[in-house]
Amino acid sequence: MPPAANDDTLAGESCLPAVIVCAIGYFMRLVLSEPSLNLFGLPYGDSDASTLEKIHPGNYFIILSFLILLCRRADPINQLVRIADNTPLISLSSLFMCSSSFIGFYVGLKV
Fold it and tell me: Hey, how many other C-beta atoms are within 10 angstroms of the C-beta on 44?
């Protein structure tokens, strides 16, 4: 039985655009290596590159897919809370990844 229109669960919602953008990001992470990014003019592995240039372009697509997932309804904060309520293990791992990314970004700025 399909979920009701006013149901608060995540089931039945269309997240196909977020899945496509995330798949493109993962594909880019697998295909584009450091030498290929340097060949395209992105100083991904250079020691004098800025911190934003050292982030792999595929990561930008993965972050964009998460933002698409949050903004598919009118209230992205409520959507984030719903995702955290329905999947506590994913929320815990996301918190760990965000905190480790922040620490890595901070350390990159200090170097």
Answer: 18
Q: What amino acid occupies position 100?
A: S
Compute CA distances 12 → 3, 7, 15, 32, 97, whole Å. 6, 10, 9, 34, 27
> Nearest-5° angle of CA 100, CA 102, CA 107?
95
For the chain (111 residues), the mean pLDDT of every run of 10, in chain order, is 48 74 91 88 81 84 86 80 73 70 65 54
Question: What's the confidence (pLDDT) of residue 53?
Answer: 81
Residue 13 CA to residue 15 CA, distance in Å, equals 6
Backbone angles phi, psi at 55, to 5 degrees: -85, 130
- Among 27, 82, 12, which Cα is nearest to 90's? 82
Phi-psi region of 12 (alpha: psi -120 to 50; beta: other; left: phi over 0): left
C-alpha–C-alpha distance, residues 1 and 19, integer Å: 24
pTM: 0.64
